[in-house]
Write a structure and sequence with these properties.
With 258 residues, the chain is mainly α. 75% of the residues lie in helices and 0% in strands. The protein is built from twelve helices and no strands. Helix 4 packs across helix 11 and helix 11 runs antiparallel to helix 12. The protein is elongated.
């Protein structure tokens, strides 16, 4: 046990961390970009696309799927990406620039707790929104229950680990003036490969192969397979943890508290 932790009553660390999480949740409501892009926007887009009757018709060009069913996994990936790229790096870049993390290092509260609180908060937001989107899709627009619930949990877990590792890397190198730019540079190209601009089923073969090797392309591939076919294929389940390890190591290597 460290000297710092030994100076605290037994229940203090848990209570202190809970207070940090609550405080970060209040700050997230004042800086709501991550919540708007990661929670509000995917829900609105899902409802809009599902409300168009043509989007619920089976199309040969989509392999017999509907436009709506194709976009459900894309919006699930969008939730994870938006919270990882906007909800996580921007507050941490501001804290670092304002010296908040450095000042915490002189108190009994480790600055790493702020990072952990941000991760807990954004992962919780993502999990809640993913459940909401699936419930809306199934109850409001008649999409079938996932073919492989276990495969879906695995695909989503790997996707979150991967994309939040990239978000931590962005947090490690971002300044307040560049955090939004770096977030956009990561978010929009990766979401394009995930099929946001046009579905992956309509991509040329070379572009589809490239999509499968990107973090969000692999995430959509795994999630869509779990939703519509069964347990995901092995290829995206290998691509995702590879990115998680690489960017997790980069985040640890370059993260600065001041």
């Amino acid at each position: 046990m460290s000297i710092r932790s030994s100076l605290l009553p037994a229940g203090t660390p848990r209570a202190a961390f809970r207070m940090i999480v609550l405080n970060e949740s209040r700050i997230a409501r004042r800086l709501p970009l991550g919540l708007l892009v990661g929670v509000v926007l995917p829900t609105v887009l899902l409802v809009i696309i599902g409300s168009v009757r043509h989007n619920r018709q089976h199309l040969q060009v989509l392999g017999g799927l509907t436009t709506f069913s194709v976009y459900v996994p894309i919006f699930l990936a969008m939730v994870i990406a938006a919270l990882a790229f906007y909800g996580l790096p921007i507050p941490l870049a501001i804290y670092r620039d304002q010296g908040i993390l450095r000042r915490l290092s002189t108190t009994p509260v480790p600055p790493a707790w702020v990072l952990a609180a941000q991760l807990v908060l954004n992962v919780s937001f993502a999990a809640a929104e993913l459940v909401l989107l699936l419930v809306v899709a199934m109850t409001g627009f008649g999409i079938a229950a996932p073919k492989s619930a276990g495969g879906l949990v695995l695909a989503v877990s790997l996707s979150m680990a991967t994309v939040f590792a990239i978000g931590l890397w962005v947090s490690a190198i971002a300044r307040p003036r560049t955090a939004g730019i770096l977030a956009a540079v990561c978010f929009f190209p990766l979401m394009s490969f995930a099929g946001l601009l046009f579905p992956r089923a309509e991509m040329p073969r070379a572009l589809l192969d490239a999509s499968n090797l990107t973090p969000l392309g692999a995430a959509v591939q795994a999630i869509q397979s779990a939703l519509l076919d069964g347990f995901p294929p092995i290829s995206p389940l290998l691509v995702l943890p590879a990115y998680a390890v690489i960017f997790g190591a980069l985040a640890v290597r370059f993260f600065r508290w001041e």
